[in-house]
Design brief:
Layout (H helix, E strand, L loop, with lengths): L27 H8 L5 E8 L6 H11 L6 E8 L6 H11 L3 E6 L5 H11 L4 E4 L10 H11 L3 E9 L4 H17 L8 E8 H7 L9 H7 L4 E8 L11 H15 L2 H31 L6 H34 L6 E6 L2 E3 L6
Parallel strand pairs: 1-2, 1-4, 2-3, 5-7
Antiparallel strand pairs: 3-8, 4-6, 5-6, 8-9
Length: about 350
């Protein structure tokens, strides 16, 4: 039998991973705290796409507002195929700052792929995902780290408000979270973005997930691990404009639902049963009417309506099946989530041994 560390109940193995599940034995919380490194490396992963106007202020705000004593900061800036001067400005920062690493993707793969690249190459004991537009306050990272030191593996920002966004966007976001959580087996917290801290073992778990079309908020929830929310007021974007159009948000929502729920496929079985039951009932009505009155009932309009409704339902169901089939087609090809052009640190560029 493996002996337990002092203070742990008998039978628990040494090196118990940190976490705060309910019902911890007395004293275990303190032991979990001690398992965190005294001088950890914290990696900031920041995806960027055409953010030339924000880079200088972003790094200045991180230097000014991020107060993390006894912590070594590792800033991973992921250039997601920018077409403006973003890459040149990032490389300039990498030459003058030893704490900056630039991952340059070969083209624009999207934010989810850029975050995946950052997770693959970040070297910190914990990583923090944040946006470049300063809507994720850098000072909140200190609170994330404090919760991480307490033993939580995930600390995420819960938005009390969403400054600078229209009522329509806030409403549609609320409807998406409500619908997603109703039909998905992996619910996600509402009003929570990608701004969060992840322990190294959470990062390792995420790196085991092979899907190509990625909804990171769902993956963060799927892997589990003890988590805690920290509320904050989300400020308006400081520079530039959002890259998310309503069409891209719609596509993103479809990808999320298809990736984490089979309900859109299953619903057509129940709808088919309901339509069939209605057809049987209508046929019985016609039969009884003819039997009692001895005449047929003219039904040109009703027949046309039934045909149009049936055709529409068939097309919608085929479209839904096609969406899932397209997802299977993409996954079956097993293409990399992203490709790197190079990794830049200091004044040097190093070739990429392999992509994920």
């Amino acid at each position: 039998m493996v002996s337990s560390p002092p203070g742990l109940p008998p039978g628990l193995p040494p090196g118990l991973p940190p976490g705060l599940p309910p019902g911890l034995p007395p004293g275990l919380h303190d032991i979990m705290i001690r398992l965190r490194p005294e001088r950890p490396v914290i990696s900031l992963i920041i995806p960027l796409y055409n953010e030339q106007d924000t880079i200088a202020s972003l790094l200045a705000e991180i230097d000014t507002r991020l107060n993390l004593p006894l912590v070594t900061l590792d800033i991973v800036l992921v250039n997601d195929g920018s077409t403006d001067a973003t890459l040149a400005m990032l490389l300039a920062q990498a030459r003058i700052r030893q704490d900056v690493t630039v991952l340059n993707l070969s083209r624009n793969f999207g934010k989810e792929a850029a975050m995946t690249a950052g997770l693959d190459y970040a070297k910190g004991d914990a990583v923090v995902l944040m946006d470049a537009d300063l809507q994720d306050p850098p000072e909140l990272v200190a609170q994330f780290v404090a919760k991480w030191r307490e033993g939580y593996d995930i600390a995420y920002g819960l938005r009390r408000s969403r400054a600078g966004e229209t009522r329509f966007k806030i409403l549609t976001a609320h409807l998406f979270y409500a619908w997603f959580n109703r039909i998905s087996h992996t619910p996600i917290p509402a009003n929570v973005g990608d701004f969060r801290l992840l322990d190294r073992r959470v990062v390792q778990a995420l790196r085991q997930l092979p899907e190509r079309t990625r909804f990171m908020k769902g993956l963060f929830a799927w892997v589990g691990f003890p988590s805690v929310a920290i509320e904050f007021e989300r400020p308006a974007r400081s520079h530039g404009q959002t890259k998310w159009s309503y069409w891209r948000l719609w596509q993103f929502a479809v990808d999320a639902i298809v990736g984490f729920s089979t309900a859109p496929l299953q619903v057509w079985s129940y709808l088919g049963i309901a339509v069939a039951a209605g057809a049987v009932g209508y046929a019985a009505y016609i039969f009884i009417l003819v039997f009692l009155q001895g005449i047929d009932v003219p039904g040109y309009a009703s027949v046309i309506v039934v045909i149009l409704v049936g055709t529409a339902l068939n097309l919608i169901s085929l479209g839904m099946i096609g969406t899932y089939l397209a997802r299977m087609f993409v996954e079956a090809k097993q293409r990399p989530v992203y490709l790197l052009e190079g990794i830049y640190q200091g004044g040097a560029r190093r070739d990429v041994a392999g992509d994920f």
